[in-house]
Amino acid sequence: MCSDIDYHFVGEGVVPAGQTALHYCLHAQGTYDEQRETALCLIKYGASIYQKDSEGNTPLDYYDRNKCSQYEVSTKEEKKDELKKLLIVPGELLARGPEAIKAFTYEVQNGKITMVNSRVMFLGKEGVGKTSCVRSMLAKEFKKEVPSTDGIVATTVFHTVNGDCNKWKEQKDVDV
Predict the structure, then answer these.
(1) CB of 165 closer than 8 Å to CB of 139
(2) Which is nearest to 157 in space by CA: 129, 133, 137?
(3) pTM of the predicted model over 0.85
């Protein structure tokens, strides 16, 4: 896939300090096909959409601000959304390497992604950190003086495919 790509818009100029090639690719003005193929190739070989530059911006932050002046005007927003969905590869797949990423992006492109739900139960003695572990998963601040949980507490959490898969959110008002 990567050998047929025209890299001319990625190679022009100097990438600012702290930016990766993926930052530059999604910030540059290229056609949809150029940006799509180049970005997917970079991700396939290890680039991360979660890597922040020296100013705290991810490649997707740059893409959100990109005017995409070389995209067709009538489909620009649709194409931008489509590319963002393609680029968001769960960390579990990134860890499995290029073949898993390639399979994932193929499935996303063809609308064949299956979401799997799991249940996790934390069991243990009082004061061992079950509540702190769940709070950590939800990116909530650690509180040293949290009282022990009395009884059973069910917390439903989720993450979305079109967001950072490392950030879990608590879902309110759900029957367990």
Answers:
(1) no
(2) 137
(3) no
